[in-house]
């Protein structure tokens, strides 16, 4: 079954953009997913092809009209979830990405200006999705982020079937750090344990580093994962990342 993405945007030329290269591009070429774009402007009702209007209540900027948005949505709606890129949505998570990938695809609305007339959300069961706590100039890059995250999880897109399973967030923690040759570079060495060939010791080290790095960089994730009770032996980082003399 192909994962079908339909993007509603005022800038269809932005697609596939980066989604046409590398892993996502190859998957697109081989039919593992499909992408179509709809220009929201094609659904404008007046002769000037207006898609926006001034905010009710006053203030800066323009708001995308709900009647125009609804007509654009209705032209592609077929039961797939309808998402709208918006900083007012819940931030996207790996769990949510997995939910989307389990379905048939998604319809994604890209905002511009001040965003969407709020009535569209209830009227068409649109779910707002944020890609983080900052403001983009438009939803297109957000839609690409969402789709990139989905596509790499589709069957047959990544090399090994389990190559996604211990990435950051999949376990509730950041992933452990990685190293590769050369063994010594600018006086810095790869942690000795990774060259030991002792798989149990390597797994324990990786787990400890995943926990430690999560505690230091993402206290929010660390707390959710169980906090202090699962902490690594303190000082793991300093011991393992010593610089050779
Ligand atoms: N006035 C809005 C921001 C509008 S930014 C507010 O303060 O909430 C214009 C468009 O960019 C939005 O409609 C949305 O589609 C997109 N956008 C901006 N930031 C985003 C984010 N963090 N996540 C997803 N989409 C975003």
UniProtKB/TrEMBL annotation:
UniProt keyword Transferase present: yes
Enzyme class: transferase
EC number: 2.1.1.228
Compartments it resides in: Cytoplasm
Biased composition (Basic and acidic residues): 216-226
GO CC terms, sorted: cytosol
Reactions catalysed, as given in the entry: guanosine(37) in tRNA + S-adenosyl-L-methionine = N(1)-methylguanosine(37) in tRNA + S-adenosyl-L-homocysteine + H(+)
Keywords of the record: Cytoplasm, Methyltransferase, S-adenosyl-L-methionine, Transferase, tRNA processing
GO biological process terms on file: tRNA N1-guanine methylation
UniProt binding sites for S-adenosyl-L-methionine: 111, 131-136
GO MF annotation: an example: tRNA (guanine(37)-N1)-methyltransferase activity
Region described as Disordered: 216-245
Family according to the record: Belongs to the RNA methyltransferase TrmD family.
Quaternary structure note: Homodimer.
Protein name: tRNA (guanine-N(1)-)-methyltransferase
Organism listed in the record: Sphingomonas kaistensis
């Amino acid at each position: 079954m192909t994962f079908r993405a339909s993007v509603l945007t005022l800038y269809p030329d932005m697609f596939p953009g980066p989604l046409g290269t590398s892993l996502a591009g190859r998957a697109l070429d081989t039919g593992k997913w499909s992408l179509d774009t709809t220009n929201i402007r094609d659904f404008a009702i007046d002769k000037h092809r207006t898609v926006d209007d001034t905010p009710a209540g006053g203030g800066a900027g323009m708001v995308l009209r709900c009647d125009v948005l609804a007509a654009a949505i209705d032209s592609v709606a077929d039961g797939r979830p309808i998402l709208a890129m918006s900083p007012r949505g819940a931030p996207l998570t790996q769990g949510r990405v997995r939910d989307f990938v389990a379905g048939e695809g998604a319809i994604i609305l890209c905002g511009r200006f001040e965003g969407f007339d709020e009535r569209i959300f209830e009227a068409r069961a649109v779910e707002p999705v944020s890609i983080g706590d900052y403001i983009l100039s438009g939803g297109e890059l957000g839609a690409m982020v969402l789709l990139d995250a989905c596509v790499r999880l589709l069957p047959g897109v990544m090399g090994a079937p389990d190559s996604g399973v211990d990435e950051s967030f999949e376990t509730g923690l950041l992933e452990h750090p990685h190293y590769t040759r050369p063994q010594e570079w600018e006086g810095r060495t790869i942690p000795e344990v990774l060259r030991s060939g002792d798989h149990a010791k390597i797994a324990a080290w990786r787990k400890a580093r995943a926990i430690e790095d999560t505690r230091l960089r993402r206290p929010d994730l660390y707390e959710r994962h169980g906090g202090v009770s699962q902490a690594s032996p303190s000082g793991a980082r300093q011991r393992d990342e010593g610089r050779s003399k």
